[in-house]
Fold each of these.
Amino acid sequence: MREDIKEILLDESTMREKIKEMGKKISEDYIGKDLVLVGVLKGSVMFMADLMKEINIHCSMDFMAVSSYGNSTQTSGVVRILKDLDYPIEGKDILIVEDIIDSGVTLKYLIEYLNGRKPNSLEVACLLNKPERRKVDIEVKYLGFNVPDYFLVGYGLDYAEKYRNLPYIGILKEDVYK
Ligand code: IMP
Ligand code: MG
């Protein structure tokens, strides 16, 4: 697997430190609220698990699955819901937990979709952001890292369902997908 990675962009300890800070901030901001972390499957699972352990106030978790990529490295621009939330979110304080924002199309769709269910608040925590690729405007309250425009894998992020188990974020070699 390692031979397919051009470069390690973010190693485990760098991410751990950042996620610790994010969890602390979220814990402070949501005291007295009814916090629900909504993970976007499957890319966010590692981040969700690590972030949740750094939150020291009551919170619950739920998941959605959406698809906009298929097995390609480019967004199709069309978002499909593959799995919806298990519980109602009306009146709750929702924090969408996402792995990476690229065009922003997926998150924009999710934000509008979930806002329709009248949560008390709706914010985004995202580990990675590719600002150069943004097509639609998104406000991210808790951001881990801005990253350059390479196709990234590991720590939950996949290419054709592979590489999610790498413990770090790496740049995928171009000859793997071109
Ligand atoms: P967007 O709708 O273009 O913002 O795409 C967001 C989704 O595409 C993310 O939640 C990821 O699942 C996936 N994605 C975007 N960039 C990458 C990448 O570099 N590696 C792996 N998945 C990515
Ligand atoms: Mg995702």
Note: Residues 40, 43, 98-99 surround magnesium ion (ligand 2) (CB under 6 Å).
Amino acid sequence: MPDPHGLTGIGSLITNDPNLGDGPLGIMRDAAILIDGDRIAWVGPAGELDSSVPVVDLESRAVIPGFVDSHAHLVFAGDRSAEFAARMTGESYAAGGIRTTVMATRAASDDALRVRTRDLADELARSGVTTFETKSGYGLTVEDEARSLRIAREFTDETTFLGAHVVPEGIDADSYVELVCGAMLEACADNARWIDVFCDRGAFDVDQARQILSAGMARGLLPRIHANQLQHGGGVQLAVELDAASADHCTHLDDADIEALAGSKTVATLLPGAEFSTRAAYPAARRLLDAGATVALATDCNPGSSYTTSMPLMVALAVREMRMSPDEALWSATAGGARALRRTDVGVITSGARADLVSLDAPDHVHLAYRPGVDLIDRVWVSGHLRPTRKQR
Ligand code: NIG
Ligand code: FE
């Protein structure tokens, strides 16, 4: 389609801008969108669209902002289906499983890692994701972390240095923390926007996490934390203390954690794929939302605890298992993810935003939870360009 061009025949349009339509999602009916280059040039009543531009008729489909997946681990080799099968028959999930993937990742060629990352990035796009974050964390040597981030950077600007995923074999914890804060950070920082630590049982404690995140911040990276996934601990409070963009997982929260998140700019990023795949209790989304915290939903795509790229599945789990309303879940999977990445140009359909849009084979967004497991992604536009999906016409 040449530029500029319009989208018409939109059954319902989620703008995430309350000034444009109804409720917090800013829902518009009988709306049209004008795309110019990589940006949305105009959103308004269909009757007011410039009649000289070519249009795509969406035949009453819903249009939503592209999903913003603010937490994924795409650079790895191998899989852990045997570990999953053992878990489904009684084993419990532990951080140590990460080391299995570390061995496979170190043994893989750059090209093998690149192809796997590309395939997962394509899967994300087919599930309607138009912005995603991805981490290192399965290399855990200076060279392997640096190459993971080099490869990650080929696919997204939202890259995260997670050298502090677990302490690898053959080195004691203190020496490893020193390495992460020193030579590893130096080798990784130029290809990372964020720094992350797995602050939990079997990984790093709060003092180690503070030391690592502070070193990253001093090198110009922005903090985010894997916090309170496996047990209650001080990770969420540390996230708030450091003004981290996000505390991720939040599976074990007490009242003080919820209050701290609600009174901060730190987003609570919930990853229900991890609870689903580790058969754990879901996080207290309702309590977070009722307290006024900002909630994001993300896939946590990784080979151990959540091997899925499906944001529609996250929406369905959030609604069915975590008692989020369909509106709240859609917001958290789009605008919420944007907040967790401190981005204002994505997660919304407003004039000037990036033209990242998804049309659904459904009249409204509620169908994402109402029709679980059904591929409702019709077309996906990233920066104004139509991406190939399975259903491409
Ligand atoms: O987000 N929590 C730490 N990291 C991943 C799991 C990684 C793995 O098991 O390979 C997560 O769940
Ligand atoms: Fe994760």
Note: Residues 110-126 form the longest helix (17 residues).
